[in-house]
Amino acid sequence: MPAGPALVARRSGAALFPMVARYTSTGIAMHIGAEVPAQPGRDGLVAMTQQLADVFARRLARSPEDWHVLVPFFPDGPSPTAPTAEPTTVMSRDPDQP
């Protein structure tokens, strides 16, 4: 997994939070995990990236059906399978994290 998000967070001092989307009957729910603390050195960067990957792995195990892209990522126009109504987005903290 690329270490870019961890590196940017560490260099800039920004907080690093894993976020995972899942589909619901009314739109998309965004789950925000616990903050990944900055750690120094190459080993720290690896540890930060692994913490992100661990959250993604737990979420993937819960709802693997949400981890796919069935439409073009950069479509030139509306997808034939795109919803016609505006979806609702729900933001929540990850219940697996304190």
Written account of the structure:
The chain is an alpha+beta fold and 98 residues long. The longest helix is centred in the middle third of the chain and has 22 residues, at 41-62. It has two helices and three strands. The protein has one domain (4-71, 86-93).
Average pLDDT taken over every residue:
79
Number of domains: 1
- How many H/I helical runs? 2
In terms of DSSP E residues, the strand content is 15-25%
Radius of gyration equals 16 Å
Gist?
With 98 residues, the chain is α+β, with helices and mostly antiparallel strands.
List the helices and strands and how they pair.
Elements: H1 4-12, E1 19-24, E2 27-32, H2 41-62, E3 88-93
Sum up the structure in keywords:
98 residues; alpha+beta; 3-stranded mixed sheet; 3 strands; 18% strand
